[in-house]
Amino acid sequence: xxxxxxxxxxxxxxxxxxxxxxxxxxxxxxxxxxxxxxxxxxxxxxxxxxxxxxxxxxxxxxxxxxxxxxxxxxxxxxxxxxxxxxxxxxxxxxxxxxxxxxxxxxxxxxxxxxxxxxxxxxxxxxxxxxxxxxxxxxxxxxxxxxxxxxxxxxxxxxxxxxxxxxxxxxxxxxxxxxxxxxxxxxxxxxxxxxxxxxxxxxxxxxxxxxxxxxxxxxxxxxxxxxxxxxxxxxxxxxxxxxxxxxxxxxxxxxxxxxxxxxxxxxxxxxxxxxxxxxxxxxxxxxxx
Length: 288
Description:
Helix content: over 70%
Distance between the termini: 19 Å
Number of strands: 0
């Protein structure tokens, strides 16, 4: 398959996986605290990746390890906890919408801090996509005034972390195999995630049925939604541009909304309109 076609296939698969992550977080929070959820997500993903990609670590040079460590914390560690904390107050669908700010942050950081060049149509695409996201956000706020939107700031911070991560990968790790990057990331994160989990009451509540049930959702989230998804994402960055790769965050809310329907979260006509505008933004941001 040609790179031009493959990048769209990867974008679609990634949107389905990450669009499902928010409902998994929501289900995981039923029996786990946000800190426990974030730590277990990293641990399950790390164990899976080391099992399938341990040999790939040898391909990482000594000079590259500093960028592996930095991208690990910006791309996975910090967002894993921020999203879990934010979803204690904000619906999973709203959380996914706010995540769509990532391409704009990627564009701004890429041009200011990393010297990356972007076309005018990519800028228009990001702006149009953000306009569609704004419709979704405002409509969600109107329909859910009881939600604490201060927690939305946590998702905005996570979005900045993602933007930093994708630009670092494109500039410093672009030639490295996606499996090597991902496995190296989680090798770095296993120890801090384990230490954080230890200092919660997880060992005391792990035998509680509700906690064990929530852990099943986090196993799926860690292995598929984090481990496998990161491999696909890094491959997508290498095949395309940082802005195109992060435009997956435009499609994620659409998938998350359909999961929300199954969990009794209703879509409004304005939200459907916003989703359509978002797709236009994806097209423009990826067009040559």
